[in-house]
Amino acid sequence: MVDVTQETFGASMTQRQPMVWDAWGTADAAAPLSEQVRTLLAQVFGISGESALRRTETEVALVPSALTDLDHRWLTEAVGAEHVSTDDIDRLRHAGGKSTPDLLRRRDDAPQNAPDVIIRPADHTQVLAVLAYASANGIAVVPFGGGTSVVGGVDPVRGQFATVLALDLSRLTSVSDVDPVSGTATLGAGLTGPQAEQLLGEHGLSLGHFPQSFEFATIGGFAATRSSGQASAGYGRFDDMVTRVVVATPQGTLDLGRAPASAAGPDLRELFVGSEGALGVITSVTVRVHQVPETTAYEAWSFPDFQTGADALRAVVQAGAAPTVLRLSDEAETGLNLARSADVGGAPVQGCLAITTFEGSAAHVAARSAEAFELLSAAGGTALGAAPAQQWEHGRFGAPYLRDALLDVGVLCETLETATSWRNLANLKVKVTGALMDSLNSQGTPGVVMCHISHTYPTGASLYFTVVAKQLADPITQWRAAKSAASDAIVVAGGTITHHHAVGADHRAWMGAEVGDLGLRVLAAVKRELDPAGILNPGKLLP
Ligand SMILES: Cc1cc2nc3c(=O)[nH]c(=O)nc-3n(C[C@H](O)[C@H](O)[C@H](O)COP(=O)(O)OP(=O)(O)OC[C@H]3O[C@@H](n4cnc5c(N)ncnc54)[C@H](O)[C@@H]3O)c2cc1C
Q1: CA distance 120 to 248
Q2: What region holds the FAD-binding PCMH-type domain (predicted)?
Q3: Of 354, 366, 381, 499, which has the fewest CB atoms closer than 10 Å, so is most exposed?
Q4: pLDDT tens digits, 98-149
Q5: Would you tell me the crossing angle of helices 306-319 and 425-442 to the nearest 10 degrees?
Q6: pTM > 0.80
């Protein structure tokens, strides 16, 4: 077993890049729209195609910090003056997540809501101390990982409290107990996806968790939201990878998960996977890791229609042919080349595009890809070769930049997701698409609704929708109406209110439909026990 501490890696670890305050990612990676796409958008949505001017960080007014001198002094002593910040730019960068309403809200002229102070604790002990102080002194605490939430999970909601602090976990970057024999490693909650892969890579290991937000989201955030990455068909969701969590709460520490499996009652570890900062702060996560794959095989497929493609994916998953990536775009998404963001607006593509990749040893990859090839061919697929799948992989982190460019020219663009059984998949897709279309039509802004199967299981799959329409003068209200209609439709059609984006503030109203009144009361009772003052992430997860 190799035990590696944070200090060992301090110098070599990839530095975390702060994201632009009002958009996705970093400014140098922004992707303005081509002339061709602008023209297309102007034709379809009747917009001018001109980009709106955006404000710089220093031009934005913030609601003043409500932090008292007394609290400031205590926090400074607890974590060190350089790790307590009331700087306006820092506050602005912690003012919310990265959903489309978040980004639109930042364009508002009114003073922006922001946390009163940012605290960057060094370790679990400091997190515990801050939580105990906040609980005793009535300060709301918003655990902040990468800030990539798309459900309002890091909104600086103060609830009944005068002060709200953002607990930025970016200094929790330790790696320890790297154990290639058991295939596990313990990762600090603040490590981003690339940092974790880099540090594990130094041991020839990989986590294999690649959500689209991979570059900026963190290990703690993945666990707290039950994240699901693009290679989930091969490596599972993040919750499948968690073997142990260490959690700080206002009432003390929980260290959960001591064996690969256990019959010692209900699995309390599961309480914190998906707890969204409302029950405690995850300070480290022990995860299942695997050897860096020896080889990757790629194959893209075309299916005549979505149902044929969905049936084909189901055949592959249920046979256990185990691709690493397995996804299927519907006709609308395929037609717009959305699966390959670099080609958006290019020549339309017919049918439904599916992507498969296979990672592992050469022999294992060969066996699984051959089996999947037979199954997908037999189910009506036409093999397109490796290139489209490699292009998808190459551009897979690019789509969020496209959203920013669309918002700039007055086009609303947002996504939502759900999951259901294979039997109910087509019904759910029709109902959600219909609800979105009806809402946008009734607002006078007919939209384009695209969908793909993003994650597959033997018993069902997730559906990921992308919606594009002309923005109204109040695009947040416009989107909230469409999203609300879609959420109602999801519940009625038997889907889950969220497959991997989590509940946050945005899905709270549908949690009762998801777990029932008794389920809500059980969660509230657990929260009361761990967080009696109710300081942890008010207004999130629980109604
Ligand atoms: C462009 C884009 C693409 C995305 N793609 C995907 C995707 O492919 N798959 C997917 O699953 N999600 C995706 N997301 C959603 C988001 O990235 C995930 O929910 C991610 O897991 C959040 O991680 P984070 O570190 O950014 O957490 P944050 O956004 O900082 O926090 C999310 C929630 O977790 C809580 N939290 C954070 N850290 C901790 C901690 N250590 N302890 C306790 N609570 C904590 C916060 O309080 C908040 O409630 C995407 C988001 C965007 C903007």
Answers
A1: 15
A2: 111-292
A3: 366
A4: 999 999 999 888 899 999 999 999 999 999 999 999 999 999 999 999 999 9
A5: 140
A6: yes
